[in-house]
Amino acid sequence: MIKQIYSLVNYNESVETMKAGADHIGLVPMQSGGVPAHRVPYDVVDQIFSEAKRRGVKSVAIMLNKDPEEMIFIAKRVKPDIVHIAGMEFTADELFAKRLHEECPGVQLMQAVLVDGPEAVDRAIKYSQYCDLLLTDSGLAADTGIGASGEVHDWGFDAKIVESVDIPVIVAGGLGPDNVEECIKKVKPYGVDSLTKTSYKFKDGIIEKDLNKVQDFCKKANFAAKEMGL
Questions:
Q1: Nearest CA-CA partner of 177 in 21, 7, 16
Q2: How far is CA 6 from CA 29, 84, 129, 147, in A?
Q3: What's the alpha-carbon Rg for the chain, to the nearest Å?
Q4: 116 near 123, Cβ under 8 Å?
Q5: Any residues with CB less than 8 A from the CB of 54 and at least 6 apart, and which?
Q6: Environment class of 153 (CB within 10 Å of its CB; exposed 0-12, middle 13-18, buried 19+)
Q7: Checking DSSP bridges between strand 140-141 and strand 108-114, what pairing results, if any?
Q8: Rounded distance between C-alpha atoms, residue 124 and residue 110, angstroms
Q9: Which of 123, 132, 141 is nearest to 34 (CA)?
Q10: For residue 203, what are the CA distances in angstroms to 2, 14, 65, 206?
Q11: What contacts 2, CB < 8 A, 6 or more positions away?
Q12: Hey, is 220 helix, strand or coil?
């Protein structure tokens, strides 16, 4: 069971998050979209992604802008394992997927799927035709795209998506140590993602990982996966 932890902002907490059991770590490289306090300078991204590679942890570059040219530029600059397209104003299409794979060999494409009803299943099936992974998530905001709401959605739609596509599905949306086991048992996904429930969020918008909760989240995800034979 893949445990994906978002959104890291500095090197030390990234290392501790990997030590706590994360298989994927995600961050927002410096760009024109997203919350300014969450954007990570390229030199820090380089340090974090280099350490992730050394540890066998996959790195995710979260794209909160809506400019495909900027996304390709960032992917070439920071060389992540995965590019995560998080917005709804721009979603990955076949042309973007082809270009990313040609210009950034080895980089996988993950498209966020807004789970807001039965139509989410159709979206997921469409994206699965040219994406490498899907991330199902809750809520839509102007500054964070799909996700970062801390809200849980109907996992029945996620389970249907997992059954309907042939690529890995990571479930996000209000997941934490309190409910990750239930989610895994209901959905049987490839992975689970946590941001809000494994973070402290301060009034100025700064976020910091709660490493005890990260470790608990990862342990419980592993336990549920083992119990389900996943």
A1: 21
A2: 12, 11, 26, 11
A3: 16
A4: no
A5: none
A6: buried
A7: unpaired
A8: 11
A9: 141
A10: 31, 22, 23, 7
A11: 23, 24, 168, 170, 190, 191, 192
A12: helix
How far is the C-alpha of 53 from the C-alpha of 120, rounded, in Å? Answer: 33
Between β-strands 58-63 and 82-85, what pairing exists: parallel, antiparallel or unpaired? Answer: parallel
Residue extents of the structural domains in the chain: 2-228
Instruction: Report the pLDDT value the prediction gives residue 71, as an integer from 0 to 100.
Output: 97
Q: What is the pLDDT of residues 55-83, one digit of tens each?
A: 999 999 999 999 999 999 999 999 999 99
- Residue 189: what are its φ and ψ, rounded to 5°? -85, 175
Residue identified by tokens 């409910």 is 179
**Cβ neighbours of residue 226 closer than 8 Å, sequence gap 6 or more:** none
pLDDT of residue 43: 97
Written as one letter, the residue type at 181 is E
* The total number of residues written for the chain in this structure: 230
Torsions phi, psi of 72, nearest 5? Answer: -65, -45
* Residues 169, 135: Cα–Cα separation, whole Å: 6
Minimal CA–CA distance to 21: which of 192, 208, 207, 138?
Answer: 192
Structure pTM?
Answer: 0.94
Q: One-letter amino acid identity for 176?
A: G
Superfamily of structural domain 2-228: Aldolase class I (3.20.20.70)
SS3 percent helix, strand, coil of the chain, rounded to 5, is 40, 20, 35
The model's confidence at residue 183, banded by pLDDT at 50, 70 and 90, is very high
